[in-house]
């Protein structure tokens, strides 16, 4: 019945490493990112362009392409980890943070409206002596 799992045996070490790295990235990067975002991040009408536009245009295209490919890799790994051992949902969220897609800002606003998520992120901000996020209005 579980014979299909034997197909993944050669990849288990890599999947374990990816799981561990995604956990470390989440533990290290999440507080760093959350504390650096401005308190009005989720209520802005439009996003301000990232300061990456100061570089050479070709370099910016390459950076954006690598960031999106890395994000897609995390999303695929996260989907696999939901069925196999690993930090699946966390890895998918890291991938979503990296990938650009239409509606991403609305999705982030919907996520921050979830009480448990906003409480957790604002707790991280309090520990860093930052003001809590201003909550977006319900749609």
Q: Could you outline the blueprint of secondary structure elements for this entry?
A:
Elements: H1 12-36, H2 57-83, H3 88-98, H4 104-112, H5 115-127
Helix pairs in contact: 1-2, 1-3, 2-3
Give the topology string: H per helix, E per strand. HHHHH
Q: What is the distance, rounded to the nearest whole angstrom, between the alpha carbons of the first and last residues? A: 46 Å
Q: Helical percent range? A: 55-70%
Q: Quote the beta fraction.
A: under 5%
Number of strands: 0
Mean pLDDT across residues = 80
Uncertain spans, ≥5 residues at pLDDT below 50? none
Backbone shape: globular
Number of helical segments? 5
Coarse structural class = mainly alpha
Largest beta-sheet characterization: none
Q: What is the radius of gyration computed over CA atoms, rounded to a whole number of angstroms? A: 18 Å
